[in-house]
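new request in #modeling-help
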Amino acid sequence: AQKVTQAQTEISVVEKEDVTLDCVYETRDTTYYLFWYKQPPSGELVFLIRRNSFDEQNEISGRYSWNFQKSTSSFNFTITASQVVDSAVYFCALSGVGDTGFQKLVFGTGTRLLVSP
Amino acid sequence: DTEVTQTPKHLVMGMTNKKSLKCEQHMGHRAMYWYKQKAKKPPELMFVYSYEKLSINESVPSRFSPECPNSSLLNLHLHALQPEDSALYLCASSQDGGSSSTDTQYFGPGTRLTVL
């Protein structure tokens, strides 16, 4: 079975602090895809990044960076110099065939990030 | 442009009402999805339409009835709902419509449904 674990339920930081959101996944697929989505209070899920299982290069996009380590089945997300607008629920997700026979997006339980001024 | 639109934003309905949720995308995507999200939980897949045909139904009760009139539109017809069906209903689309699609899903803003 495919599974995504986000052990951090809620994180509170003060603006300008760096914060890392953890994501650990389980899958038997050799080919799979990992995603991060942001869900602000408005409700829309905003796509942040997609990474395939063969590409372990870390990625940086502005204040966001992602660390993919296949050896530990982790895909962690770091926000540098956090801002109040970063306050949201962040979901890590895995797309793979698994036992179902079709591609399905499996979400973690989400991490709520609160950034205070 | 990665916009998926949903109407209405909010909906309150009684258990005997019939209502519909609408979703639209103009990105030329061939797969569209309905998800249900309860408070403080991740989204749960309900239905997948691939090339305008229903390809996945995640054992959703028949009081939820999806419809895909064309490749840009997706509806969710609601009838005889229960209070526990109150949730945020999210629509998404992705470029590829195949069952093996690994394409990124882009989500709409959702409809917050309250069933009284």
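bot summary: Chain A has no helices and twelve strands.
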